[in-house]
TrEMBL record:
<dbReference type="InterPro" id="IPR003718">
    <property type="entry name" value="OsmC/Ohr_fam"/>
</dbReference>
<dbReference type="InterPro" id="IPR036102">
    <property type="entry name" value="OsmC/Ohrsf"/>
</dbReference>
<dbReference type="Pfam" id="PF02566">
    <property type="entry name" value="OsmC"/>
</dbReference>
<protein>
    <submittedName>
        <fullName>OsmC family protein</fullName>
    </submittedName>
</protein>
<feature type="region of interest" description="Disordered">
    <location>
        <begin position="1"/>
        <end position="39"/>
    </location>
</feature>
<feature type="compositionally biased region" description="Polar residues">
    <location>
        <begin position="1"/>
        <end position="16"/>
    </location>
</feature>
<dbReference type="InterPro" id="IPR015946">
    <property type="entry name" value="KH_dom-like_a/b"/>
</dbReference>
Amino acid sequence: MQATIRWNGGAQFTGQSGSGHEVVMDGPPDHGGQNGGARPMEMVLMGLGGCSAFDVMSILQKARQDVTDCKAELTAERADSVPAVFTRIHLHFVVTGRELKESHVRRAVALSAEKYCSASIMLEKGGVEITHDYEIHSADG
């Protein structure tokens, strides 16, 4: 896996993944930025959410669950001192579908957290407390 980060001036950078996708990262105006992109630590948080949501959806699809939507809402706390690392992160999954089995959703969230989500496991090994929960919505109305 590879990535390249290019400075655009000020506090703005463009990251390019090895697969050719680009994302802009920028700082807030009080740190020389123009607020033209996500902060690097926001990218870490979004990466965790994407990694875990990918796992949850993959597991539910393999279980033949009729999922119509899946959203991961993340909240994080950071240390008050430098380095301002994440200390706690909570992932709340909102899974919508038809006749979803709660046991499958619970299992998918647990497997992502405990076995499959590399980002989550890496952050936990670094001392971040990560918690998960979920809610299920019916797409049937």
